[in-house]
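Budget justification note: compute hours in this period were largely spent on complex prediction jobs such as the one shown. Inputs:
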Amino acid sequence: MAGLRKYLSLCAGLLYWLMIAPFRGKGWRMGLVFAQIVRIGVHAVPMAALTSLTIGVVLAMQSAAQLQKLGAVGFVPGLVSSSLVKELAPLVTAIIVIGRSGSGVTAELGTMRVSEEIDALEVMAIHPMSWLIVPRFLAMVVMMPLLTVFSIYVGLFGGWLIAHFALDMTMPFYVQRALEYVALRDVWIGLLKAVVFGVLVVTIACNTGLNVEGGAEGVGVSTTRSVVVSLLAVFLANAVLTAFFFF
Amino acid sequence: MASHESSSQVAHPLIEVDSLVRHFGPQRVLNGVSFKVYPGETFVIMGGSGCGKSTLLRHLIGTEKPTSGSIKIFGDDIAKMSNQRLMKARNKFGMLFQSGALLQSLTIAENVAMPLVEHTRLDRKLIDTVVKMKLEQVGLTGHGHKKPAQISGGMKKRAALARALALDPPLLFSDEPTAGLDPIMTAVVDELTQKLTRKIGATVVVVTHDMASIFRIATRIIMLGTGDRQGTIVAQGTPDEIRAHPDPLVRRFINGETDDGEPGGGEDDLYHQTLLRRT
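Corresponding output:
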């Protein structure tokens, strides 16, 4: 309960520093935002690529194995594209980002808390919210959808590898069938999910990191907790969002 | 010393702590601490490990909130200030943390420049000059481009001191400024502290247990007790008054003596029994 209260107060503070503070002469620190975009987003690209490539390949193979029995192999591209856009790309990207960026944020902020760096910022009258949290938040909210779109493309490419080399589909056929089963609305849903996941991951990671207690051991414990809680939150949010747009 | 005392008593106190109490769970770390610090003083808070002196300092800078009691800095209660007022008050003081607390992601020069970049409108060139001056004062010329992880503990501390002094604050807090420094660097840090009070009339509040340093810089001292007298002031006065203080706890602390009798001395059986009973 106390943890939830801290989380909500972090979110309230974040809202203030995102929306209101810029109009009071305390703008976003764009230099720090770009630094975080590189660390949180750009450095996650190789892992996101590899993961979504395998997902695309596996998806195509598994669906082809089943659809072959019905003589409906032509549906493989649609199945790959629709599941990637609406479900798998946002989810897989979120998991990658939790694993390397969320945990990194918690460990970094936790270490800063333990070594009095955050206190030092406060005493220098520099609000940790504007120096540490807002840049990470903005970076995450920008990069999650971008990484998701990237994952969709790489996943589709993975599906195409199977469709082309194992199922003898032509490129135009694959692309046409893949697009046929995805509406623009689906893309928006996927991107909305990505943004929601990004917000959850970065706020949970920051909140856990800022509240670390108990030295190096505390940092370790908090980093684990941050990853676990983020994963649960993302899966729950995914179920809720899917149900919301299903009905 | 007496003349200093009487002249400063007339001025308004810069810091006024009134019956400050702080509990951490069932543990009473601070138990009714009251004192005043006047402008121009070098005020030393001393005491053994775990007496709550660092905790007391954290209350003074507003990073911890008291359970009860009040802390007035520049006439305002720091525990009841709004965030904005607190930020404004913090512009008027510097703080040297025990571990240095330099930002690891920045270089030494960037760390020292930070308060100047954030709170002044000086142009880049002037800031660079000030940073170089501050680094020279603490003997770190030529180390500005290094990251905190690349320099020794003592150097970190001196860099942190340069950062705390970047804005020439009228009030400087420092937590164990000389711990981990060699005798020469201890003297350098002490001298810097004294220069600060003498030249720009700043007030310095130091938490330390380094006796040599205390008697070199202090104009007034309070000592916090441990054990049964945890978190209370057991002695206060000028360095001379503290040196001549009759309290046995103070005497032991100054002379570096252990508790009466050595551990393990006397009857071995009895010692083991009392030890076991205690834990």
